[in-house]
Each structure stands twice: as structure tokens, then as C-alpha cells.
């Protein structure tokens, strides 16, 4: 079955330190990969996507993500965390043969940046 | 560009009552999604429309949930009758088929 895993329920990082939020997927072929962020009482906001090309993708708010095909991973990273980055982060996958634009979401990782 | 609009933002009902949610997608977006997000979980797709046609409703509990997208623009999602386990945030999203989705603020439903 196709799935997306975010192995960490919560990630704590000190402000100014680099952060990584992990995502792995189990989808055949070459899926499209996404990261979304959700602030309290808000809908999800698009951060970045990988479709094809360079394995390092840059997105909004200084975030980037690294696609690793052999490890079927798409980890979200930021060189220097801000307190305002504290939020819930979701990884999502669109299977490649999904002409219907269907997305599978992970369970989310809560990022807490400590001042 | 206006975002995806949803109403109401909050709704409290008793079990066995009915409730309806409304979504107005971004203008020109052909694809519209309804998701259910239970606390502590990721969004789960309930139904996906392409214009006014249903593309995927495989995870929609059709005995109690229904949705329509008349004229291929705004959409309503209805629950009748509601159960306690329907307490969740209901998210609407639209997409111009450039792969990313644009989400509304959601409707938080509490069933007592």
C-alpha cells in the first residue's frame, strides 16, 4: 500500500540551530513530493515541492528539502531555526500515475523551536 | 488573489444532528478537495472534484456524508446524522493542477 511516514511526532531545536524534519514514502515510481506547514487554527500552507531535477529544493521562509531516491526520503531542512517556525509540518506525496491529482499525507511532525 | 474561503469556522452540534460546510475555491481552480483532519493526524481525503464531477470519493462514508459542487465552483459537504467520531477539522483545498494545493482555514466541528 502507498504510504508516507513521518517518524517523529515532535522535533525540538534551539533557535539558530539547524533543523531537520524527516519524511519517507512508500510509493512505486517517481512521485511528486510536498511539504506543508500548519499554524494553529489555520489551514495548511504550501512550503515546497519536488517534481524532478535537482535533489535539493528551496521553498518558502528559508526552508529546503532534499530528495533521496535510494532512501525514498524527502527530509525538510532549515539552516537556522526561528521561534516563529514552530508549527505542525506535513509531508505529502502524489503517486506518479495519479492522473486524478490524489495526495497522501503523513501524520505530521510538530516542530518546537526554543528561544 | 483571494484564498480558499470556508464557512463556518466553528460548529458545535449534538450527535444525530445534521451539519453543512461550505467552500469557495480560488477562482479558476478546477480541482477541489475535502479533507477530514482528526486531532493528531494528517488530513484524510474525503472527496475530490474535477470541475463538477467526482474523481475520488472512496474514503467518503456515504451512508452519512454527501458533497456536491454545483456549477464547478463552490462546494458543500454535509453530514447527516453526525456521530461523535466526526469531530474533526474539515479542510477544503483547491488546485489549478500545478500540483500544489491551496487550503482554506478549515471548519472545526465538535459533536457532543
Biggest beta sheet summary of chain A: 6 strands, mixed
Q: How many beta-strand elements of chain B?
A: 11
| Proportion of strand residues of chain B | over 45%
Largest sheet, strands/sense/barrel of chain B: 7 strands, mixed
Class from helix and strand fractions of chain B: mainly beta
Overall pLDDT of chain A: 91
Fold and architecture overview:
The complex is a heterodimer of chains A (115) and B (112). By secondary structure, chain A is mainly beta. Chain A is built from no helices and twelve strands. In chain A, strands 2, 5, 6, 10, 11 and 12 form a six-stranded mixed β-sheet that branches. The relative contact order of chain A is 0.33. Chain B is an all-beta fold. Chain B is built from no helices and eleven strands. In chain B, strands 2, 4, 5, 6, 9, 10 and 11 form a seven-stranded mixed β-sheet that branches. A four-stranded antiparallel β-sheet of chain B has the order 1-3-8-7, with no helix packed on it. The interface between A and B is medium-sized, with 22 and 27 residues.
